[in-house]
Write a structure and sequence with these properties.
This protein is of the alpha/beta class and 337 residues long. 32% of the residues lie in helices and 21% in strands. The chain folds into 2 domains: 2-59, DNA polymerase, domain 1, CATH 1.10.150.530; 64-325, Alpha-Beta Barrel (TIM Barrel), CATH 3.20.20.70. The protein binds S-adenosyl-L-homocysteine.
Length: 337
């Protein structure tokens, strides 16, 4: 049996053809299973014979929600997967809508020194349905219409690119979640070949790259992935992405006191990004219980900001959401505390 929430509209049409049904049945099935009150396969308004056939192939799966922590700006959800593993997702409440931060793996192997998710070794990739069902469960429990997705929860999404692309396809389906490509952002630590793959895919979503340091020697210390993909290669890939898809790239930069927050770092960062269709998103370091790091003081962050501004580099400060329920960037793990 297959969980139908892992199947894209295109793949469902192909499957229908394969079993001798009209592919256009997908236009009845998809809106029904993705409606705000999802219809079970057996309840679909199709010929009895067809629903029976479909019930033998598909089921509508769901994630078990173990815990929800709510705050004014964000709610954190803990989900149990079928195999006993757990993941977390976050509903972020912006003035302009509700954005879900989706996890893509159980644990993460990238090992960034400042990130809590990296402390959990990766157990496996999430399936397509496990990503879709994060949206379904959060919509059902919160009763909110989801207007955007951040693919930046636990895991490195580009390590799981093929499932992530199918998930994006499903999230964009117009009679379902209907989330536009401009409202979907994927964040990566910089897996260079996969950035090219995403750039050339059917759905080049908004790209955010976790840079966090402007040169290899420093970046290597906090992001081991730098040993494999050098900073210059990451920038090249970002340029390709931006030019090919006419997109503005976001470079995330977490402000670590005394580590990467000097004016000199800001100057180097400006040099690196000069002339690119890109901007820097400065992120306050959120406490993860790791005593090696502290967030830069506010004045230092503003000093860094000013250097970038003076050099003509676009820069914003990420709005702090979810810290009170440990749901901010870098604070997701597997136990919802
Ligand atoms: N693996 C992806 C997405 C997950 S993390 C990536 O690396 O981009 C989402 C963002 O939060 C990344 O920019 C990550 O570097 C940042 N982050 C991790 N730990 C953090 C912390 N403690 N405080 C603030 N941001 C953090």
């Amino acid at each position: 049996m297959t969980d139908i929430y892992g199947i894209t509209y295109g793949k469902l049409k192909a499957k229908l053809t394969e079993i001798g049904e009209k592919p256009s049945r997908a236009d009845i099935i998809f809106p029904a299973i993705y409606s705000e009150t999802p219809t079970a396969i057996a309840e679909l308004t199709l010929k009895k014979e067809t629903t029976e056939k479909l019930s033998g192939i598909f089921y509508t799966g769901e994630l078990e929600c173990m815990k929800v922590l709510t705050s004014e700006t964000a709610d954190k959800y803990l989900f149990a997967l079928g195999d006993g593993n757990t993941v977390e997702s976050v509903l972020m409440k912006h003035e302009f809508g509700y954005n879900v931060c989706v996890s893509t793996q159980v644990g993460c192997n990238m090992g960034c020194a400042f990130c809590m998710s990296g402390k959990l070794k990766k157990r496996r990739d999430l399936t397509v349905s496990e990503m879709t069902e994060q949206l379904l469960a959060i919509r059902r429990i919160s009763g909110k219409k989801i207007t955007g997705i951040s693919i930046m929860g636990i895991g490195e999404p580009l390590e799981n690119i093929s499932n992530v692309l199918d998930f994006v396809d499903i999230a964009m389906y117009p009679k379902g979640f209907d989330i536009g490509i401009k409202h979907i952002t994927l964040s990566t630590c910089g897996l260079v070949p996969k950035i090219y793959e995403l750039a050339d895919s059917r759905t080049p979503v908004n790209l955010a790259i976790s840079l966090h340091a402007p040169y290899d020697e420093l970046r290597e210390k906090i992001m081991p992935v730098t040993k494999k993909y050098r900073t210059a290669e990451v920038i090249e890939a970002a340029k390709y992405y931006s030019e090919k898809n006419n997109r503005r790239i976001t470079f995330e930069y977490v402000m670590l006191d005394g580590v990467n927050d000097s004016d000199e770092c800001a100057q180097q960062l400006s040099g690196l990004l000069k002339g690119m269709n890109a901007y820097v998103n400065l992120i306050r370091y959120n406490d993860t219980g790791n005593t090696a790091f502290r967030c830069s003081p506010h004045e230092r962050i503003m000093g860094f900001y000013d250097v970038l501004k003076k050099n003509g580099i676009g820069v914003t400060m990420r709005r702090e959401l979810g810290a009170s329920v440990n749901a901010a960037c870098g604070q997701l793990s597997a136990n919802c505390q």
